[in-house]
# Entry
Amino acid sequence: MKIGIVGGGQLGRMLALAGVPLGLECRFLDPNPKAPAGAIAALRVGEFTDRRELRRLARHSEVVSFDWENVSVAALRAATRGSGTRIAPPLRALSIGQDRWAEKRLFERLGVPTTCYAAVDSRAALWRAAARIGLPGVLKTRRLGYDGKGQQVIRDHAGLDAAWRALGGVPLLYEEFVPFDAEVSGLGVRARDGSVALYPLVRNWHAQGILRLSMAPWRAPALERQAHRHVRAVLREFRYVGLLAIEFFVKRGRLIANELAPRVHNSGHWSIEGAVTSQFENHLRAIAGLPLGSVASVGHSAMINLIGRMPAAAELLRIPGLHLHDYGKAPRPGRKLGHCTLVAPDAALRNRRARRLLRALDLKLPGIP
Ligand code: AMP
# Structure
């Protein structure tokens, strides 16, 4: 089966790799001729709004998917109209996943606890939001923000004007700053026949807004139950097909939803080696109309993002149980160039090896077990 994917980043590349053994052939559209997926699959170069290229992708595919959320909903809808080509995940989920404010409204409507928030479109509205919600807070662009880009933490009134100067001019969202105890994510996949599988809970550590480390399974049964309930509610709401991730803050044993991603997610990379069926394979199985694979974990995994600079492979591969993924991207500060996943037979050994790797990478993260 041929699958068209809008966006050919590392997520697309890992989707393409997962498709090979199943005979699922991914092809990509991306504006960057050097997009990582292009090294292993057919890549057409074009903007995400290029209707001709999108139509071409749809014509050559039975189903069209995407590897990040900032693709044009209108262009995608127009490109597939009348072609019989399906789009998965559903466009309504994509549309909501593009707008932080719409995400929060969805969470509220579904009874998924989220932060206090307000839409902000003027300096006065920002001051009003801060007065109602309180300080400190976080000002975020509603659209196109990722990896901590397009957001500012505001500690006091002086910071309000500075943040407005930095971000004002586009639709914004102000929300309470959550002094969280931890961050976790819930990943779930829903097939075309409505069956759902929920991955074990993942604990995440971010630095400068970028995910650095994920550990799974994270044994916290009460939190996992909450995460599974919330992920299931969102999957059901959209009659979703494919993989979905929700990131949560943990505060005093309760989950607070931060954002959702209607696609495969960085906090699920561990599942390539650490689960019976990876998030990438399960996404493809779902959108291709195939049965889902088991999401059970295989051992205990730690996934570490390699950002800005690729360490020498020989150094990393000396660590037992380590799997390296090099996305083949040109180095640039703050850019995700690859990741590695350690799989160990028990959590204590995983934690020990992860600490050793973090030291070797000169990465300090608070609260590592
Ligand atoms: P986001 O782009 O919303 O996923 O934010 C990236 C990271 O910034 C999160 O994973 C948190 O570590 C931090 N962050 C974002 N929003 C908040 C918030 N309201 N309170 C505290 N930390 C936040």
The first strand starts at residue 2 and ends at 6. The longest helix spans residues 221-238. Residues 190 and 196 are 4 Å apart (CA to CA).
